[in-house]
Each structure stands twice: as C-alpha cells, then as structure tokens.
Design brief:
Elements lengths: L2 H11 L12 E4 L9 E6 L2 H9 L4 E6 L14 H11 L3 E4 L1 H5 L5 H9 L2 E9 L3 E9 H13 L13 E9 L16 E13 L3 H11 L7 E5 L4 E16 L1 H11 L6 E2 L7 E10 L4 H6 L4 E5 L14 E4 L2 H5 L2 H12 L5 E3 L11
Parallel strand pairs: 2-3, 2-15, 3-4, 12-13, 13-14
Antiparallel strand pairs: 1-4, 5-10, 6-8, 6-9, 7-8, 10-12, 11-14
Helix pairs in contact: 6-7
C-alpha cells in the first residue's frame, strides 16, 4: 500500500483536529507516494526502534510521542532526535505520531486506562472547548430536506449520543437582484418576499470546509445566505482525561496496589492517605497536573496521572488521593490499542508491536 492510502485510517484512529495546538502530530517523515511494506507501532520512535523497524522490514513507524516536537535548525546527529531523523531518512522509513490526537479521543489513552482498571460510567474529565461551531442558513421549503440531509451526511448535527440534530423554523425572506443576478424565484429588480425555512446545525470546527461544500452544492439559491458561529459549549465526547467509578470501592492502600498491578508500575508516588474509600477515580495519561482542580470539582476520590511536582501534591488539600503512576506506565498500553485497531483495518498487512521498552526512567 502507498502511504497516502494508510493516512486516512490513522486519522480515523486519532483525528488530527483533536490534537492540542502546541502538539506536533501526523506525518513527521515520509513521502505520500511511498510504498509501505509493514507498520511498526511503538510509544517512542527512538534509534533502537528504527533499528527494529529495519530488522523487521517495516518502513512506517506509528508512534505515540512525536520524535520531532519543536523545530530542528540542524540535523547533524548530535542529539538523539537528530540521529533518529537521519537514520529514518537514510533507510526510507516514514514516521507518524498520534499523541494528543489520541489523548483527546473518547476511546483513546484515558479510556484505555479506565478499561484496565474496570471503571464504569466513564466520561471526559476536561472536555474540549471552542471546538463546536454552528451553521445557520435559509432555503425554500422545496429544498429544505435535501439540503438538511446533505449537511447531516457531511458531519453536521451530531450532539453526544444523537445524530441528525437540527432546528428548523419558518419565516419570510426578502431580496431584490441587480442586473447581474439570476434569481431562482422572481426576476431581476423585483422585490421578492418568499416563505423560507431557517436551518440551524452544529458541527465540529474541522469539518467546516466539508460542511460549506455540502451547503453550496445542495442549495438552490444563486447566492447562499449563511452564518457560522463559534460556540462556548464544551464537547462532551472529546477532551483530556476521564473520570469513572470502580464497581467495588477499595481502601487507599488496596487501591494503589490494584493500580500497580493493572498498570505494571514499579512504584507509585502519592499524596497523604485520607482514610477514605476510593470509588470515583479520575485518570489522565501523561502529564496531568493541570487537571487536579477539575478532578476535585467532579468529586473524584483519587486522581491518577504522571509527572507531578513536589508542591503539586499539596493541591490534594485533603480532598482526594493524588497518585503519580509514571508517564510511561500511564501510556504503555496505548501501542497495543493502536496495533489492535490497525489489524482490524488491515487484516492482511504486517502490523507489528515494537518489543522495545522506551521508558527513560529507571528505578533502583
């Protein structure tokens, strides 16, 4: 397969529009016309992983963390990042990263943690903001259903567990065309009053071009009247972290031992025990200190994340148990999820799980 035929599946796995603005996701190295012989999936595309890809005849590496995060001014091989880039280019190996595009996915990094822990009644911990837009347009009654259905097909009208959502209201539209006009109803220089239907639908902002294409293609008017608004609503199915409940509550020490076994942690750093039962658990893979406040607001008894600094443990403030389970440990099962997803999409293609442990943190 050519690389360009694989990219849409990778975007289905982790839509690039879901990624945080600071991130560097998608195709980092590679030629769209390149023929792909196999895919190696890893957490970090390090030099030993590139060697593994060469050995296993895989010329596409799908990694979680982007090996190229900020700009490279030189590629001389002095740093581990530069050495990876040089070796990948020399061996015609493409690299694709998913990172926060999968972090924000409702079935991604944090859902994987929830599944490992058996959490139920899960929902997004920090819903994504400024991601929903609203289209308002107007058309004649005869065009109403065709236009509305086309907008639905383009991805508009999805709200939570519902699809094909819209609001429709009747009103009177007016217009008068000039000498260059070609009106669908009425004549040039004629003042027209006509019954119209106002259609209102919401959509995810990255679909705007697709939505507008459907609007212009299926509208009957020569000039299409429409407005697009950015909404303040949070997207309940896209965002960072998750919160859910254990089926059976545990005491704090039992809970941490349970987490240690399920997430294969060598150690867990935690805040002071409060001698309270753990039932409601918030999780955020990777560096999640920014969500401590949100976990408290939603009534979590425990918050699992990574990279907590000394003073951030004080932010527990006797309200919940903070547990730093390790950055690598919190995301380690992500690559298994990616492999399973790709195997379902490409059942007759070489999809290989990397055997390299890329955790840079060691314990003595």
């Amino acid at each position: 397969m050519k690389l360009q035929s694989i990219l849409p599946i990778l975007e289905e796995l982790a839509p690039l529009a879901y990624a945080e603005d600071f991130d560097n996701v998608g195709l980092l190295l590679g030629n769209f016309e390149q023929e792909i012989s196999g895919i190696l999936v890893c957490l970090d595309a390090l030099e030993n992983v590139v060697d593994e890809a060469i050995e296993k005849k895989c010329n596409l590496i799908v990694c979680f963390h982007p090996i190229v995060f900020s700009g490279l001014k030189k590629i001389t091989g002095k740093t581990y990042v530069e050495r990876v880039v040089l070796k990948a280019i020399k061996n015609d190996i493409a690299i694709y990263a998913v990172h926060t595009a999968l972090d924000n996915h409702q079935n991604g990094v944090n859902k994987i943690i929830c599944n490992r822990l058996g959490l139920v009644n899960t929902k997004i911990l920090v819903p994504k903001e400024k991601f929903i837009q609203k289209l308002v347009t107007y058309t004649i009654t005869e065009n109403h259903q065709k236009l509305r259905n086309a907008l639905f097909e383009a991805g508009a009208g999805n709200i939570g567990n519902y699809e094909d959502c819209s609001f429709n209201s009747k009103g009177i539209g007016t217009y008068m065309g000039n000498e260059n006009s070609n009106p669908e109803i009425g004549e040039r220089f004629e003042f027209v009053e006509n019954e119209e239907i106002k259609i209102e639908v919401t959509f995810e902002k990255h679909l705007e071009a697709k939505i507008l294409k459907a609007l212009f293609k299926n509208h009957v008017y020569e000039e299409v009247a429409y407005e697009i608004y950015e909404l303040q609503n949070q997207h309940q199915n896209i965002g960072l972290g998750m919160i859910g409940e254990l089926e059976i509550e545990m005491n704090e020490s039992h809970f941490l031992q349970f987490v240690k076994e399920k997430m294969q942690c060598e150690s867990i750093r935690h805040s002071t025990f409060l001698n309270k039962k753990i039932k409601k658990v918030a999780v955020l893979g990777g560096s999640g200190s920014f969500a401590i406040g949100q976990a408290k607001r939603l009534g979590a008894n425990a918050f699992l994340t990574a990279d907590l600094k000394y003073h951030q443990f004080y932010e527990a403030e006797n309200q919940l148990l903070l547990a730093d389970i390790g950055h690598y440990e919190s995301e380690r099962y992500t690559k298994n999820y990616i492999v399973d997803f790709l195997i379902k999409k490409f059942p007759n293609f070489a999809i290989i799980l990397s055997e390299q442990n890329t955790n840079p943190v060691k314990y003595f």
